[in-house]
Amino acid sequence: MTHPLFSLESRVALVTGSSRGLGFAMAEGLAECGATVVLNGRNEKTLAEGAKKLKDRGLRADFSVFDVTNEAATRAAIDDIARRHGRLDILIANAGMTIRKPLEEWTLAQWNEVIAADLTACFLVTQCSVPHMKKNKYGRVIYTTSLTAVRGRPGIHAYVAAKTGLIGMTRSLACELAEHGITVNGVLPGYFETELNAALLANKEFVEFVNSRTPMRRWGKPRELAGAAIYLAAEASSYVTGQQITVDGGTSAQM
Ligand SMILES: NC(=O)c1ccc[n+]([C@@H]2O[C@H](COP(=O)([O-])OP(=O)(O)OC[C@H]3O[C@@H](n4cnc5c(N)ncnc54)[C@H](OP(=O)(O)O)[C@@H]3O)[C@@H](O)[C@H]2O)c1
Fold this sequence. Notes:
alpha/beta; Rossmann fold; 44% helix
């Protein structure tokens, strides 16, 4: 039996960008604690497969296909999720992407593309979800931020700007929404083995570089982010808001 502080029975959770990678791992973790999870992404086939994988284990799962950078689609989809499931308690705004290149090679369109997906969309999905949370005076908003927002790396300028912006927005929203019973926090991952990092994982030197900078001497497995998400989604974190939980094998703790 799940400890009551970590039980998510009767809770409904939307996890954006959860067809694979960190989003799927966090959604699976919430579902294992009793939540009904709604997977999201832009590809219906992968989402249907993901939801089936969870349902085959006896977990409660649904999916909603929409692009978080499309305002009309996002607004309609989130209202539809709340209508279909009768409530919306937990939002993990996790969908994200990156572009890596030297400063001079960036176009403004590329900058805008990353900011739209990694920052503006998080504002939008939060604005759409919070009214449903306010109805029950209970809500959990969780952003997937990044180690690169607090430790510099070259080439990923818009990504770093977006993730740093998310950490700031975590605090402003925490201040505004606390009186409605809604907490706002972030999970701050180091380097994890996911498709987002396919190019980095194919580069042996970079893999070794990360290992050498990480006290645990390895990259994270997506499953290892689930615990932090469960904690921030559950009663266990009822007095925690405006914070980040770093999950990085100790990378940020080392000089
Ligand atoms: N992996 C890491 O080391 C790491 C570290 C720190 C932070 N993060 C953050 O963690 C989050 C997840 O990353 P990941 O590594 O799991 O990446 P991933 O494996 O590439 O997964 C990204 C997910 O987001 C979805 N997605 C992308 N753009 C979307 C859009 N516009 N609308 C809806 N869904 C969209 C993708 O599905 P479709 O393509 O099917 O739409 C997929 O489900 C991102 O915010 C990333 O910045 C990752």
